[in-house]
Amino acid sequence: MLLARALRAAAALRPAPRRLLSSSSSSSFPRAFLPPPGAAPTQARSLWQLGGGGWRSALLRPRRGSAGGVSCGCGGLHTEGDKAFAQFLTDEIKEEKKIQKHKSLPKVSGGWELEVHGTEARLVRKIAGEKITVTFNINNSIPPSAEEETQEEQKPDEQEPELTSTPNFVVEVIKDDTKQTLVLDCHYPEDEVGDEGEEESDIFTIREVSFQPTGESDWKDTNYTLNTDSLDWALYDHLMDFLADRGVDNTFADELIELSTALEHQEYIKFLEDLKSFVKCQ
């Protein structure tokens, strides 16, 4: 009994634990936006690069008391931080439009017809009783920078490398007299894109090959899928020649990168405009 009372008295005298982070520290920022410890820097959008230290500091660490604002009648909250954010987005949209290379999407040579549905694009070509369809999605299509430099190594007047979209793409070959579609899953290896050392090397590779029922939107996982990692090189070369005969070659792959990059930049600007409208509640 005396021991229990003594323990309770000691606990009452123990000082309360101090908060490790204040309310204005980075703990208020969502964990999803914080880089993991030791992570290498990746190629960043100009959203962070062109804003400058002052803007970024104001965005990531808003002043205390900035939550107080006046509603515009929509019932939503408007703060001084929102005004600064909207102004930053206005400037950023202007900068992105200045560096936009293509105001309209570039065409792919060879008689390909383009269909775009949001972030997904489809190229269709018909030749001699066959229909060839190439589908890709621009989401997560920009790889991290291959040559990462620290701030000390990078020169002040050195320009940031251009962002290039290299999406995975799926080629479907449909013959008029068959009920099966040959599906080839292709991608751009990071060590091959932009490498001018070997003109004869392919800038894209085939990763998987399978047959799927023609006309069905959902592919069946029960159908056999051939992974090319362990494939005989002679068979692999014939598959690449099969695609080249149908217009899917290095020239096509280069033009697809240009198309995908233009589409990705177009969607990025649209995202900034939507984000600005959302913040301003327009």
The count of helical stretches stands at: 6
Report the mean per-residue pLDDT as an integer: 76
Strand order of the largest sheet: 1-2-3-4-5-6-7
**Order of secondary-structure elements:** HHHHEEEEEEEHH
User: Taking Cα atoms only, what radius of gyration do you get, to the nearest Å?
Assistant: 27 Å
Can you count the beta strands?
A: 7
- Structural class, from helix and strand content? alpha+beta
Which keywords apply here?
31% helix; seven-stranded antiparallel sheet
Helix and strand arrangement:
Layout lengths: L1 H12 L32 H4 L2 H9 L19 H19 L14 E5 L2 E8 L2 E8 L31 E7 L4 E8 L17 E9 L11 E3 L5 H13 L4 H31 L2
Antiparallel strand pairs: 1-2, 2-3, 3-4, 4-5, 5-6, 6-7
Helix pairs in contact: 4-6
